[in-house]
Amino acid sequence: MAYYIGFDIGGTKCAAVLGKIANTSSLPEIVKKESFATENLPPDTVLDRFLHFIEKTAEEYSVQAVGIGCGGPLNSETGEILCPAGLPLWKNVKITEYFERKFGIKTRLMNDANACAVAEWKFGAGKGAKNMAFLTFGTGLGAGLILNGKLYSGANDNAGEIGHVRLTKSGPLGYYKYGSCEGYCSGAGIKRLAEIMGNKERYKNGYAALLSKIGEENLSAKTIAEQAKNGDKFCLAVYKKSGEMLGKT
């Protein structure tokens, strides 16, 4: 039985997981996991949380390697997080070197969408496919590509990043671009889309009713989705618009 640790670094939250796999033909299993909010936390604080997770885990399990997923831009070859849009405090963080120096455990860094694409291709819905795309919808919007039976990451680990495609001249802001796919379709973007649509005359009453129901401070892609499931017409219109823009991309 082999044990591995995985870390996911996101703009809203981070996750740590211990997984195990019996052999190359079996599916991996999650042994334990935890998550914590990371918005506005400096890298040192997040790394300390990850270190604590490794220390606790190493007391009970023999860990073979550590894998880290993070939004780009990053350099997977040198193991350095460069300057992700959703993590403004993370600049030139040599994260794999940090963990290898502390614990002597082999550590690798990968664009989070690429990591998801590989996992889905090897173990999930994409298993057996020669070509597939995986989209991530979080604080931002990412994409990973499997082409001709292998990961295609491009020259700088950013291949397939459709979130940066500009769809309209104006619209929700995503990664410093108004009207981008990320602006319309990411978690953070859907909130901004609702705010923009709510200022239009045809949606003002529906938007006001939504804020009265959930509280303005609770407006998010999640709460909009929850209300859409309950039949809220304004929320349904927001997700319809988001879906249309994703389809155009």
Structure report:
With 249 residues, the protein is α+β, with helices and mostly antiparallel strands. The protein folds into 2 domains: 2-117, Nucleotidyltransferase, domain 5 (2-Layer Sandwich), CATH 3.30.420; 163-248, ATPase, nucleotide binding domain (Nucleotidyltransferase, domain 5, 2-Layer Sandwich). 36% of the residues lie in helices and 27% in strands. The protein has helices at 43-58, 95-103, 112-123, 181-185, 187-198, 204-214, 221-229, 233-248; strands at 2-9, 13-21, 29-37, 63-70, 74-75, 80-81, 93-94, 106-111, 132-137, 141-147, 150-152, 173-174, 177-178. A 5-stranded mixed sheet has the order 3-2-1-4-8. Strands 5-6-7 form a 3-stranded antiparallel sheet. A hairpin with a 3-residue loop joins strand 1 (2-9) and strand 2 (13-21). The longest helix is centred in the first third of the chain and has 16 residues, at 43-58. The protein starts with a strand and ends with a helix.
Concise structural overview:
By secondary structure, this protein is α+β, with helices and mostly antiparallel strands.
Please give the largest β-sheet. 5 strands, mixed
Detail the poorly predicted runs. none
Put simply, the count of helices is 8
**SSE topology string:** EEEHEEEEHEHEEEEEHHHHH
Question: In total, how many domains does the architecture comprise?
Answer: 2
> How big is the Rg?
20 Å
In the CATH hierarchy, the third-tier topology of the largest domain is known as Nucleotidyltransferase, domain 5
Considering DSSP H and I runs of 4 or more, what fraction of the residues is helical? 25-40%
What shape does the CA trace take? globular
Which percent band covers the strand fraction?
Answer: 25-35%
CATH class of the largest domain: Alpha Beta
Distance between the termini: 43 Å
Secondary structure class reads alpha+beta
- Report mean pLDDT, rounded to a whole number: 89
Q: Please state the second-level CATH architecture of the largest domain.
A: 2-Layer Sandwich
CATH superfamily of the largest domain: ATPase, nucleotide binding domain
Strand order of the largest sheet: 3-2-1-4-8
Write down how many β-strands occur, each being a DSSP E stretch of 2 or more residues: 13
